[in-house]
Structures
1.
Amino acid sequence: MNKTGLISIYKKRSALIELNKVASLWESYQNDDTEKLIQTARELESVYPFILPAAHAHVERKPTDENAGRPIQSLITIIKELKTEEFKPVFREFNKRDSIYGFGDLQVKRLFDEIIKNN
């Protein structure tokens, strides 16, 4: 967020409620219980609308038999669309599309290098 956005959400801040459910999110994350994570996020959605998209992004981040996980798939798509193996433009586009992950340049660079090496 930019400075204006941060100021805006700070002014609209509220006290945490549903602390037991919020704490159970961390337990679900630690135990890799994605079903419970999503279920709890849905239960908290009316109070914390940002949790469900974050929970979905976490689940999509993980590789499966069908794909390498959303961050890697997104990088592969961006590399193909931009027709480049130059990191800077790929990183900028990744941050636009998948900012929910909050990945820094070194995290994305590690994934990017892995993709380029395996091509």
2.
Amino acid sequence: MGGSWFERIKKTFENTFHPAHAVAGLCSSPNLSQVKDLLEHAEKITKRAKYTAAFANSVGALGDAGEKLGGAVEKLNSLTEKSKTIIGDTSAACEISDAVSVLNDWSTNSGVSNEEAAKAFDKLFGGAADFFKKLPPPANSYAQILAEIGRVSFFSNMQQLMDPATSRTSSGRQMQSVLDSIDHGN
């Protein structure tokens, strides 16, 4: 097998990071969603073609051509499944890229609110979960935790609860009251 689990994780990261980083340039392009829609459509068509070929072969309607058709449909289905995996990886890379961009702006005080930053953290953890699934054990066990953080919007919910500048909390309402009294006092 070669190497410790840490070396395998490092190698997997290196093999994943660079292609994902190269793909991140496509994230703002509408092509990604178009390709995803096309693959979903292809999946529906190949599913119908599989049923049709299986039916034709079961009654012997096409003979040898039916068997060739069945083989071709299986190859097409396999390519569609692989393509869906690539699109999923690309979508995760785009989530991470978008989140890092927002967080970079937030850290340099470039007009990104705490609420937007919290959403970006949720997006970052959700995207990272897809890549952690591909790592060897025990590192891949963290994928479920990261996915859950993104799914439940952990950082967004905590930001709403703990940020005194938000009016959704009692401390936020108190802060707003103090600020209003200061404004009216001048």
3.
Amino acid sequence: MARVSFSALIEEIVGKLAGSVFQDSYGGMQIRTRVSPRNPQTNYQQLRRGEFGYISALWRTLTSVQRQTFIDAASTPPAALNLFIQSNVNLSLIEESIIDTYVPSSDPGSMDIEFTQADTTALKIKATGGTTVVPAGTKLLVQVTYLKLPTKIFTNPSQYSPVISFNEGTDLSAPTDILTEWQSRYGIMKADMRLCLKANLIDKSNGLRGADSVNCTNTEDMPSYYFPLFAVVNTADNVGTGNNSLNQITIPANTLIADGDKLRIRIQGKTSSTASTSNTGVEFNGTFHYYTATTALRFWGYDIEIVRTSSTTAEASILIVTSSSDSQAVNDAYSGLDFTSGITVGFAGLAIDGSNKIQCYSITADYIKKP
């Protein structure tokens, strides 16, 4: 930045000249390079800007009664205008009709969405939390970023753009490919890059937006090759005779989507008895398989690996380690399954008499995708 000294011929220069900008400052006149901010003027940007301006202008057309519904919800007129704009922008993003009267509702909550595949052939997302179906009265808005170098992070909300929305009742427990929608927004997908998604539930009646669910990944390097499914502690126990299902976990439909995909399950517990025999074992889709017998106080652990071999069959290797000499390893084959409908895996106990107690106190499950 240059310093300017004036003479009797030129007393002042202010404004733009060619590639420079002349301005007065605390230290005197200064010159800086003229910089024009980047404004790509894409069709998407023009649409969003026009939509925002249109919604803002609609506020002046509302009746006093209609405006009051927004003021009642937001407390002040300026906040009411912001609520009107935010609500209708959200409704516009999910392709719902805009509103002129605000009816309050409860928070729509959140829905955890993660990438399960990101490469040049597919961009798949999946619901991974407790909510896998879009709740009634809402739509799920999914916004995705453009590609960046893997070292970059996405912190600016403007870097996320709407790609697709899912209506109430949509089941996202199975991976859903949104590559076509992403490419229509950003162009060709490339390998070895980074992108993020942000998912929100939006109330269709008033545009209220729920909490963000954010997930990031690098293309060709997916976190879904290994991720936890369940972790529970202090589960049920059994006192008395007969076999009892002590705990079950449900593996969502289409979790094992390819032959070679695996489930890794770990179960820990104990058997307390001084005189009688207890059997413990694995329950797979309602069928019990008993593997160990104990006759005294035992602490034990199961390490189970279930491998999909077809859409209806699986192989399981089970390692049972106890605090005594009755540890063992077994292999089983399972048939008649349907991985598209989900499966249940659980832990069962068979107590021989009423003095026996079998307790399962922790169970975890991880998904391991075939490399």
